[in-house]
Amino acid sequence: MELTIPVGQDTVWTEHLAGDGVPIVLLHPGIGDSHVWDLVLPGLDGRRVLRYDVRGYGRSPAPTEQFSLLHDLETVLDQLELERVLLVGCSMGGGTALSYALAHPERVHGLVLLCPGVPGFPWPEEPELDARYDVLAEERDVDGLVKLGLREWAAAGSDDAVVAQLRAAIPAWFDQDEYLQQEPPVYDRLQDIKVPSVVMVGDKDRPILAAVAGGTSARIPGCEFVWMPGVDHFPSLREPQLVTETILRLAGD
């Protein structure tokens, strides 16, 4: 079932699939929208699954006010009365999942984190990349940003699905500085996470993302680490079967 859920004065496009077991919540990366889960969904048939597009991404309208990724997730789960969930987050979505798990530990069954972005990780300065991005964003050069995104995030290949994901995400980037609030740091609090957790990252992802994934896995007690050969920053498109199997294992299958 497709829904439009109010978040503040805006709305987000949501898909809520009826089924059994612990609800599975799929949180997309900042370089795509919820279509990034299309190859994973068939393997979750019969399960209760939720996915939505963050404000400005994919099928959700652009934001008109400042907003928080964590608060929007809280609102969506409350609206659908989902009391305890398995959070599956990729990159940006992984950071949201971690923030939620620390804010509401009693409502999280487990975490599957794909190449997660983690608020508070000591990210190194990248002045050349930032300068190039700023020029392209100022010019609203979508084609230029697609090329930049393919170079940085798609080392495993620039197929049509990956290009489509970048094109679905880039319009949201233009509004982020104005509207998207930074989440409080969580990297130094990861030892407080007590639910079953898996961190997955590919060997074709950016080295800094492998470092984030390794550091995150090491700090979460009992966390499983999965290294994915040949995979870049789009693991659900590159290895959907492995991602699906991991989700089901954490969900209880």
Automatic annotation (TrEMBL):
This is Alpha/beta hydrolase. SUPFAM superfamilies: alpha/beta-Hydrolases. Signal peptide: none annotated. Residues 23-144 form the AB hydrolase-1 domain. Keywords: Hydrolase. It comes from Kribbella karoonensis. The lineage of its organism: Bacteria, Bacillati, Actinomycetota, Actinomycetes, Propionibacteriales. One of its GO terms (molecular function) is hydrolase activity. It comes from the Bacteria.
